[in-house]
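Async update (no meeting this week)

Hi team, since we skipped the sync, here's where things stand on the single-chain job. The sequence we agreed to prioritize is pasted below, unchanged from the tracker. I ran it this morning and attached the output directly underneath so nobody has to dig for it. Comments welcome in thread, and please keep replies under the output.
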Amino acid sequence: MRFLVIITALIGAACAQAKLAPGAPCKQDGSIGICSSGLCVQTPSQAQGVCK
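Output:
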């Protein structure tokens, strides 16, 4: 029973991650959210990129 509760909580947390609008700051690793288009343009020298 506990296992089911933990799995449900993890799935809920994954689905609740923010979708970022085009032009919003983002990180390739998705730590600030996922771009709605799925494309975050970030060069290695930048701390964060921009959603396209």
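Quick observations from my side:
The longest strand covers residues 49-51.
The chain is about 25% helix and 20% strand.
Reply here if anything looks off.
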